[in-house]
Amino acid sequence: MPPEPEPPPPTVAAVHALLARELGPPVDGDVRLTWRRSGPAGAPVQRLVLALEWRPEHAALARPGDAWFLHRPWRLPPDQPGGAVGVFSSHAAFDSRLSVGPSVALASRLGLTGGESVFRRPGDPLPIGVVADDAPGAPRGAAEWRALLRAEFGGADEELPGDEPDAPVCRVALMGAMDGTLVQECVRRGAGLYVTGAMRVPGRDAARSLGLPVIAVGHSRSEMWGLRHLSRVAAGRLPGLKAVVVLP
Asked: Running DSSP on this structure, what letter comes out for residue 216?
């Protein structure tokens, strides 16, 4: 039998629609999802290149027909990336929904269910995090959780083992910030582990006083997780597209 033909590449409009679904509703004051479009909505996209921000050395990676996704697009020169049919971007929505914080995608990847949103202060437009439940069955211990998170994010910047490193963790806090008030609120909601990007002194002191295990996976690692997630989703839902994540 002859080999099946390669699926056709998706269009700029199809890539836009996929990113819009994953990033959710627009956030007031955020950058535009379509930062720049050089081709028509029906133009084919051969590759989606995802990077945290534009750097001059990225110009050597550009190919005609590419679309790019930049978390921070502000340094992108007007003539770059050469030959791209479009540049997409998201800053606030990406940080909230595809980084450590109130991310449905991350919670699902980690096997967490349900979840209560945590806000930094009344009236915040977006939650700063979520406290979610481990999957039904035997809950994983804090040490097992920290090993899982190091594997998922490719390392960690700092960890606190807590007073009982092997105690089962029934609820996990995924938080985009760390201070004493947030730590106390998550403990009040039953969190047995606090996951964040960067360890902050007031939050560290509060966690130590409460015996709460903490893992700070690193700000850049948490952002890179979001890029890898978008890459996986793009490859799975748009089979004619190649997705490439650029390392920082």
From this structure: E
Please enumerate, as own/partner, the contacts of 231-237 that have beta carbons within 8 Å and a separation of 24 or more: 231/48, 231/50, 233/18, 233/22, 234/15, 234/18, 234/48, 237/18
Tokens standing for 151?
């594997």
Measured CA to CA, the distance from residue 234 to residue 239 in angstroms comes to: 8
Task: Say whether 101-216 and 12-95+223-245 share the same fold.
Answer: yes
How far is Cα 141 from Cα 226, in angstroms, rounded to an integer? 25
Nearest CA to 65 out of 120, 11, 132 is that of 11
Provide the greatest CA pair distance for the chain: 68
- As its CATH architecture, domain 101-216 has 3-Layer(aba) Sandwich (3.40)
pLDDT tens, residue order, the chain (248 aa): 666 778 889 999 999 999 999 999 988 889 999 999 998 999 999 999 999 999 999 999 999 999 999 999 999 999 999 999 999 999 999 999 999 999 999 999 999 998 899 998 777 778 999 999 998 777 889 999 999 999 999 999 999 999 988 889 999 999 999 999 999 999 999 999 999 999 999 999 999 999 999 999 999 999 999 999 999 999 999 999 999 999 98
Q: Are the beta carbons of 198 and 157 closer than 8 angstroms? A: yes
Considering only CA atoms, which of 188, 196, 209 is closest in space to residue 157? 196
CATH code of the region 12-95+223-245: 3.40.1390.30
- For Cα atoms 44, 98, 179, give the angle at the middle one, nearest 5 degrees: 155
Q: Where are the domains of the chain?
A: 12-95+223-245, 101-216
**Cα dihedral across residues 116, 121, 123, 128: positive or negative:** negative
